[in-house]
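Q: My labmate handed me this sequence with no annotations at all. I'd like to see what the chain might look like in three dimensions before we decide whether it's worth expressing. Could you predict it?
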Amino acid sequence: MNYVELYQSGELLQRIREAYRRLETCDLCPHDCGVNRIKGERGLCGAGLKPKIASANVHTGEEPPISGTHGSGTIFLSGCSLKCRFCQNFPISQLGNGEEVSTAALAVRMMKLQHQGVHNINFVTPTHFLPQILAALWLAIPQGFRLPLVWNSSGYERVDALKLLHGVVDIYLPDMKYVNDAVALRLSYIKGYREANLLAVKEMLRQVGHLQTDAKEIAVKGLIIRHLVLPERLSGTRDTLQWISLNCGEETHVSLMSQYFPAHAAHEESGVNRRISLEEYEETVEWLSDANLEHGWVQEHEDP
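A: Here is what I predict for the chain of 304 residues:
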């Protein structure tokens, strides 16, 4: 594992120090809140100094190379830099359900999941806890931790923050949510999502390349892009798929998701207050083919 080499060279410790320094005027995500999280101040994501965990369990519902046969060691982190009105995990991401723990306790959970035989440790919504994750990894390595790390994020990232993860994260699993920034602002309360997202995905690809699997087709390294199809073409699916094909390559693995339903406050929002139709999803599958993106996954979908 590359992170073992970073640990042995002292580079990992240097990155931890730099990451915690950034918490003094927090700029881990493009919101650049500037709050002093070392002193307990909280920005838009709601995170303080300690990592906050909603759950840490074996999960079998991810993409096949992530879940594999033994499951993914999924650690759901509380809070989020997005405020999606349709978030299916809103009790965790927006209400902040979870338990604040030490980085040592986070390392314990990582080790426990490794002992359970999972294929990887999958950090869900990790952006705002980047320093704490690095610190937990630093504590876990001398205990024998060796699993691949999955960075399962909204894709709303800063490139300079992602560079702290180079050689640490093995598998990037970002969302590409929107093409239209006005839609992103209305539905997720984020500014400049498109530009930040495109730059972040390019950096992720630079670090880990395209998806690589072992003899059992379990992911060991690489990029998988997730795209959730929204009703009424609000997610800009066609443009997103074309961009992936042209800028990341036709060999890119894409998970095209049909599972949208109007959770949280979506019933109050025009356009997203219903599930997508079978016709809408079949249209996006055709766009996937038009973009020559043949690697990845589509979901079964029936009319609601």
